[in-house]
Amino acid sequence: MLTRRAALEIAKLFRFFDATCRHDLATHRIISERDYVSNLATHIRYPFGALCTNRLADHGRQLTNVWPCPGPRFISVTSAPNIEQVYGCDGIIIFSSDLGTRGTLHRVGMYEAKWPRLHPHTAAILNKWDDIGWRPLTRKKKPRPPQVFKSRFTNELLRQLPLARAGVVVWEQFFCQLEVLRQNLEFRRFGSTCVLHEQALAYLVAQPALWPSPEITGPKPRAAHPGLRAWNDVDLGNLLRHNSISFGYLIYLLLRPNTCGHYLRAVNNHLTVTNPFGNRPPSPATLAEEYAGDRRPPVDANDTTASAFLRVPVFASDAAAADNPLAITRFMRENGINNYLHVTIGEGLIEGEELDFFLKFATEHQLL
User: Which domain does 40 fall in, by range?
Assistant: First the structure.
């Protein structure tokens, strides 16, 4: 879709702002995962600073726009804190490509942000970045839902599964508070470290100690389930060693024609992500055959999120977004999303030969 050069330029921009946030994290100017994501979105929304934007006007005259014309358009929104997650992700990024008379195609990415606090001189993690306990299978209060003993990160990976199967690009994003260019415990040297959902799930399937326990009904026991544990620094190091990519490269994958996620068309300013499992969740045995042969993987068959679908609001202009001021915040609140970022790439950045190649590629690989 985009030329390789244009995609690289946008990816490098994202990578630079990611490294800037890492520097602020290392110097204690950023204090939490939410703060990191919010600052990153602000940098992206105003890539040359708020002074160099054309969104404000002085006596009816717009300020100078320093973007090459035409340039990408950015919308980002940060929600109120303490929103309960539904899909195991706390952020969403949508890239929209304006194809002129052929319409606009959108690619959706969702991620979960984690900040394991690293020791400045060793490979140790100072905080328990994951925890484990008894968790309900559904969000319903009555009747009391069955309980399973599982870790928080395992729970998030399982909730992400319907999204990944539906063609959403899902990844785990790990922040590092070491100064830029310093490397420790397989973290990237420049910015944050990302792992695609498929790679993280494959590691989970290969580690039975990280699986959920069998479900129980009634009050949850006080004792921990024997043989099960939370993710630790060894798991994180093994996961990152062979599967990590930079945030910039992940953005590049979202921008270029490849099999990393499907393309969607908006209807009434919304993208509809349909449930790949149909109206009812599959039984664990079905997923066992698909993932691990004769082994049963840790899938919540009764999780209500598996039967849900996602409707993502997207607007072609600031005026359209202004006419629906609550659409994005309502979507974030209902789906437990803390940060929303929408990037629209104008028709002028997409060359004709690249467009023809992309449409042929997407058709052959059933991405449309």
Answer: 4-364
